[in-house]
Structure to design on (231 residues):
């Protein structure tokens, strides 16, 4: 198992452009989470999937944000019409609550750092 | 809703000295507690967790944390730190029986000086 991977690691874009990030979770994990992290802060929850179903979205996830997990495996996070305030690290994590009586801890990818100029 | 407070944004310490990073949470129901570590330009890694049982939990690299229900705390300690322990440390809480979405504290930057 190679862990959680994210692509790209860095993205620089101009304000108003659309960007898409990809996350590949640990294969046997049924849950996938997206977080945003800004400097000096902990991860802030954006949304999560159980298999292919998107079960919860944070109020931080404006209409410009959309996430998909079409086959219950990898996920994409798209930001449309980017704004400078979207500049942050976007983290993906996976877990499998209830697995072997535990599974609540999350396994994080390295993150995608977005810079909007 | 639960919340997590890490009062110290930065903790400087000399190598081989002991350290304690504080974490307090608020919740009206039972919780699961976690400490994660983040090195520069990397994602978070699980350091240790409390789910049930013994209130003192340990990691493989010498850290330990104690769940104190009456004080709603889960402080992280290490008796002797190394330069390589320099990193950002995040405390997180999950409500048991809920949606299992963790709430993270804002983090404590541990800076170990030679």
């Amino acid at each position: 198992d190679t862990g959680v991977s994210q692509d790209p690691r860095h993205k620089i874009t101009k304000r108003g452009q659309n960007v898409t990030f990809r996350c590949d979770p640990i294969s046997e994990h049924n849950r996938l989470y997206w977080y945003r992290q800004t400097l000096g802060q902990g991860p802030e929850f954006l949304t999560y999937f159980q298999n292919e179903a998107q079960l919860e979205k944070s109020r931080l996830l404006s209409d410009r944000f959309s996430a998909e997990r079409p086959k219950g495996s990898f996920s994409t996070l798209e930001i449309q019409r980017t704004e400078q305030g979207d500049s942050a690290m976007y983290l993906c994590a996976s877990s499998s609550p209830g697995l072997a009586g535990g599974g609540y801890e999350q396994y994080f990818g390295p993150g995608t750092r977005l810079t909007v100029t | 809703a639960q919340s997590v407070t890490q009062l110290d944004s930065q903790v400087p310490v000399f190598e081989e000295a002991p350290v304690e990073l504080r974490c307090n949470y608020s919740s009206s129901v039972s919780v699961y507690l976690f400490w994660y570590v983040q090195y520069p330009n990397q994602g978070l890694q699980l350091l240790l967790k409390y789910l049930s049982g013994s209130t003192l939990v340990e990691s493989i690299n010498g850290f330990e944390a104690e769940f104190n229900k009456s004080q709603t705390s889960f402080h992280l300690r290490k008796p002797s730190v190394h330069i390589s322990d320099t990193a950002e440390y995040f405390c997180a809480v999950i409500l048991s029986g809920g949606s299992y979405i963790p709430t993270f504290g804002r983090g404590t930057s541990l800076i170990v000086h030679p």
Q: What stands out?
A: Chain A touches chain B at residues 4, 31, 33, 40-45, 48, 55-56, 91, 93, 95, 97, 102, 104-111 (CB under 8 Å). The mean pLDDT of chain A is 92. The longest strand of chain A covers residues 88-95. Chain A is about 0% helix and 50% strand.
